Amino acid sequence: TWGEGRRDAYQERPKRAVVTPTQLLQGRSSLRLSADGGGGSSNCFPLPSWEPSAARVRPPARFFAHCCHGGVKMAALAYSLGKREINHYFSVRSAKALALAAVLLLTACYAVSRRYQGNDTCEYLLSTGRFLGDKTWQPYSCMMHRYKQSEAKSCLKNKYIAFIGDSRIRQLFYSFVKLINPQIKEEGNKHENIPFEDKSSSLKVDFLWYPEVNGSMKQCIKGWIEGSSSKPHILVVGAATWSIKIHNGSNEALTQYKINITSIAPLLEKLARNSDVYWVLQDPVYEDMLSESRKMITNEKIDGYNEAAVSILNSSSKNSKAKVKVVSASRLIAEETIIQSSDGLHLPESSRETVSNLCETQPLEVIMPKKNSRP
């Protein structure tokens, strides 16, 4: 009959070799011969039957359950084999060696960082920060301590501090000395040197009027290095807006500024070997409030002068043991408060006190005794 002929033809077909998943994982070479490709219990998906489609029977539900159970067993076996291989190559001893290597690498990276960034543990004090509320400035990575008058006098006893630069540096000078003597008045000729002395602590603070980075400023700094006069323990320097103003913002003035800073940078580094030397970047201005005689002092020009100063000072200090510290956080402070300026150029008093405190805090943290021995 037609059905018997089909069965005979099927039985005469060559038998197919089927490898079970377990045999494949264990690496066995034995093969199970199956006539129908799906009769064994280890085959989840049998080969198609040669019976007419009407005679096909749907596998029972327990068949699929058995397949899932087999899949779980396969996964467990694969995990066991993988874990065995990992344990073979990754022992406790090798783990300790890797941990030691990681520690040595981190130590080396830290040493390199200290070599090029200095030993200051609060290195971001002068460069980053944010306002907490309206008036409290908080540097990132460290806390600012607001020194009392008695603390400052004790730490700065027998010290000499110099501020050299333009009217903006003069503002920082007054904010600094008001920490020692809050009653001091900002009076006298603004374009002259201004001395200050506190006899009770033998502290001397000078403002030296050098509004341009030029040969005169260079001779002043050179006199401290080569002369017999006492060198300042702390030096705060900065100037640019005066050059922009008197040269009407010309490109030639910026070129000369770069030449002059390049000439002064090695002297500042020599002084920085035994003193704390700070270069204060120029703050932005509030252009809408500037007088007609200052309209050429734009933020674009100021950015050009600041970029020149940072590039030259950083480049010069790469091969130097001493480093001039660049105060850039003052610009962040000014960006938030310059709108409160009375003339668009100078910071309001509260903001310049914050900038002055930045220059005070870092050297005072070095000079100041430990907390439990503070007066």
UniProtKB/TrEMBL annotation:
A GO cellular component entry from the record: Golgi membrane
Catalysed reaction, written as an equation: a ganglioside GD3 (d18:1(4E)) + acetyl-CoA = a ganglioside Ac-O-7-GD3(d18:1(4E)) + CoA; CMP-N-acetyl-beta-neuraminate + acetyl-CoA = CMP-N-acetyl-7-O-acetyl-beta-neuraminate + CoA; CMP-N-acetyl-beta-neuraminate + acetyl-CoA = CMP-N-acetyl-9-O-acetyl-beta-neuraminate + CoA
UniProt keyword annotations, A-Z: Acyltransferase, Glycoprotein, Golgi apparatus, Membrane, Transferase, Transmembrane, Transmembrane helix
EC number: 2.3.1.45
Recorded topology in the membrane: Multi-pass membrane protein
Superkingdom of source: Eukaryota
One Pfam family hit: NXPE4_C
GO MF term set: N-acetylneuraminate 9-O-acetyltransferase activity
KW Transmembrane (keyword) present: yes
Start and end residues of each NXPE C-terminal domain: 137-187
InterPro entries assigned to the protein according to its UniProt record, in alphabetical order: NXPE4_C (IPR057106)
Family (UniProt): Belongs to the PC-esterase family. CASD1 subfamily.
Protein name: N-acetylneuraminate (7)9-O-acetyltransferase
